[in-house]
Amino acid sequence: MAPETRQRQADRSRETRRKLMEATVACLVELGWSGTTTTVVAERAGVSRGAQLHHFRTRGELVAAAVEHLGAESVLHLKERARTVHGSVVAVVELIADFYASDLFTAALELWVAARTDPDLRTVVVPLEARIGRETHRLAVELLDADEAKPGVREAVQITLDLVRGLALANQLTDDGNRRRRIVRHWARMLEAALEGDGL
Q1: Tens digits of per-residue pLDDT, 40-61?
Q2: 169 contacts 179 by C-beta, under 8 angstroms
Q3: CB-side neighbour CA atoms (13 Å) of 50
Q4: Residue 150 CA neighbour count, 13 Å, CB half
Q5: Nearest Cα to Cα of residue 66 among 29, 117, 34
Q6: Shortest CA distance to 92 belongs to which of 198, 196, 184?
Q7: Can you list the alpha helix ranges (DSSP code H) found in the chain?
Q8: What pTM was estimated for this model as a whole?
Q9: What share of the chain is helix, strand, coil (3-state, %, to 5)?
Q10: pLDDT tens profile 4-43
């Protein structure tokens, strides 16, 4: 097979995966776990069932890959946006809160709830959630320029992540944006003191 042909096939394969992953997250957000079938995803992505099965054998594999892939893309986007905040703790915490209030969190939440009662799905989701948790903690430390050698700083960063995750959960049924912004700003001031070594 000519190199040009192989390259075209590789490009088509990447594009098919991208379409499937974007369609999967959109379906999770709009239809929930029960409505996100491989057939519906393939139709939404505009690819054949055969092409979908070539890339992902099961719904669990497809959904986990989609959440992980788009999670990585969202982290890159968050890093790009963080370059504009110039070290402001309030702005960084607001960015992280917005990250968790995105459709990606909604899609991941659907996956986590389904995994609670689905042992096969749980084996895929638990390591995925652990990787995303480590990456978001590492990213928060980087964006906040936090020195975790100082007493209480690691815990303060983790509290920040737990807080914004909880606020994102509260936002699932109703628009909780105004309350979220007030709480985030208040917490950011407390976090700033903790990062400077003044405690909470």
Answers
A1: 999 999 999 888 888 888 888 8
A2: no
A3: 0
A4: 15
A5: 29
A6: 184
A7: 3-35, 38-45, 49-55, 59-82, 89-100, 103-117, 119-144, 153-170, 177-195
A8: 0.76
A9: 80, 0, 20
A10: 777 788 888 889 988 998 899 899 889 988 899 999 999 9
